[in-house]
Amino acid sequence: MRAALEHRQKIGEVYAAFTSAETTGGPRNEQVAHNLEQAVRRATQPVQHAIKNRADDIQALINGLDSDPFIQTIIMSQGRSPSVIAYFPEQVQDMRRFCSRDTPETYIVQ
Q1: Hey, where are the domains in the chain?
Q2: For residue 37, with 0-12 CB atoms within 10 Å meaning exposed, 13-18 middle and 19 or more buried, which class applies?
């Protein structure tokens, strides 16, 4: 049944095929096929993080401060939305190199 459902066969067709007279040990009812179809669909979908509200988003940012090299600073103050400063050190080096008066003409795009 799982293979048929993975190939996007309809639930009713799968149930009918497995409850025919030739097969034994098939599903009790169509709900069993429906539940298996949901399990197959969940297994093929990408994993999504269960972030449900702003507090979870802010907590994820705070946790990323130690582990994510992109998040540099988080500024939080009462009565204001949090500010997140995010960049890679290479991006700052590029800004210094390309925004300098000493930038060679070969880097300037016209």
Answers
A1: 2-44, 54-107
A2: buried
Amino acid at 26: G
Q: State the Cα–Cα distance between residues 17 and 36, nearest whole angstrom.
A: 15
pLDDT digits (tens, 9 = 90+) for 36-50: 777 777 777 776 666
CA dihedral 8, 13, 19, 22 (to 10 degrees): -90
Give the CA diameter of the chain.
Answer: 84
d(CA 99, CA 110): 15
- What element of type H or E holds 95? helix 89-98
Rounded Cα distance between 58 and 79, Å, is 15
Predicted TM-score of the model (pTM): 0.43
